[in-house]
Amino acid sequence: MRMLDIILKKKEGKTLTEEELRFFITGYVKGEIPDYQVSSLLMAICFQGMNKEEIATLTELMEYSGETIDLTSIKGIKVDKHSTGGVGDKTSMVLGPLVASCGVKLAKMSGRGLGHTGGTLDKLESIPGMSISLTKERFIDQVNKIGMSIIGQTATIVPADKKLYALRDVTGTVESIPLIASSIMSKKLASGSDTILLDVKFGSGAFMKDLDSARELARTMVEIGDSLSRDTRAILTDMNQPLGCAIGNNLEVIEAVNTLKGKGPQDLVELCVKAGAIMLEQAKVCSRSNAEELLKNKIENGEAFEKLCQFVEAQGGDISYLKNTEKFEKSRHIDKVIATKEGYVKEINALGIGEAAMKLGAGRATKEDTIDMTAGIILHKKVGDYVKKGESLCELHTNVDNYKQIVKEIEESFKLTDQKIVVPSIIYETVE
User: Fold this and answer.
1) Which of 137, 153, 349, 401 has the maximum number of C-beta atoms within 10 A of its C-beta?
2) Are residues 281 and 163 located together in one domain of the fold?
3) pLDDT tens-place string over residues 83-94
4) Quick check: is 187 catalytic?
5) Which domain holds residue 33?
6) Is 307 a catalytic residue?
């Protein structure tokens, strides 16, 4: 078998067999197939696509290209969730403790942020002492004892994806639904959970800019999970404005704490309660109709916040920062962005806000960049709110001295109108 023949076959739009895909993945991981040939195949896949069987086979071969996590020693059904990334997306810090407080076992591996999207690991590490690197034994023991753990992905999981993603990033082959779906699902499947809930975001601040693309990606990933006997469901969520009000690492931790104490922004609460209800149904704890009430009760009675404290303390974090969020270090510069006219907020460009937060120090432009945990933006107005001239649109936090140009970029991200705005639900639809 030759890699050249596989490239030519896909170039002509033909279906690749399991043997051909195995030859490609195994050879590439071993270093036997050069980057230039793999780049050519990836481009052929971008143009010609893959059918359901090809995508499922590719995903499974990637899943088993390295170590997989065996979670069978954790009692009960293990749940996991994955977000395709967005601006202000602190969902895992709220949703994890929320479902764990209902008796569900959440064993989650997360990633870091790059560009305008924040990573869960970076946010957690803004809590002093918090460790996201645990041994497999300690990870499993913690989930058994307190119901949840969130750690970083180990280097030995899905090495095929690490190599392929690095190549896709520099060859213009990132935006291919078969390649995106197999990348995400191979990591989720290798992580060992019994059920997977996918939060696929669409809009200006999301990877998928339009609803149709997000729906296709969601359906593709659900089909992969189903074909490999894993209960997989997806929700399509709106990222045409930032999620919640806080963008930036310790600012988002503070918002997650406030949400679990019953003082969260409406869109974040709605997302976490509705997503949590699906996860409880997947874990066979209760029906979805009863689950929302149970989750709301766990916030009201303080058990969800207490579970967050247990989780952070188990991983070395200083929970005094959660119990008194004023302890978090603050930026040197805290400044308001003032409205120059009045009207209803029609749109908040999530991409613009995310990129501004990155420039303030809250994100990475490259993997080597250091994040300023104190930096970010707190929205004072959301879509649908009425703004008077002179009112604060948002507040920026930064240690960057020359930040006035960034203020202008933030101003331009807010679009106002004279007409009242009907605010859509954060969850557009569910794919099951």
Assistant:
1) 349
2) yes
3) 988 899 999 999
4) yes
5) 3-49
6) no
